[in-house]
Request: fold
Amino acid sequence: MPKVKAADKKFTGVIAGVRFENGIGETEDAKALGYFRSRGFAMDEATAPAVTSKKEKGADPDAEKS
Reply:
């Protein structure tokens, strides 16, 4: 499970629905991981899933909606 590291190594609490204890939280929630990445949290990238864009997932941003 991906580990997220808070800047405060003593932080114990909840951020984005993820429980942290002594500055370390663990989650597999893609939205939470995206939140942490966008806010500059350190992560154990070896266990964190790779970030893929919508285009890489096959969505065509130029396609018209029916």
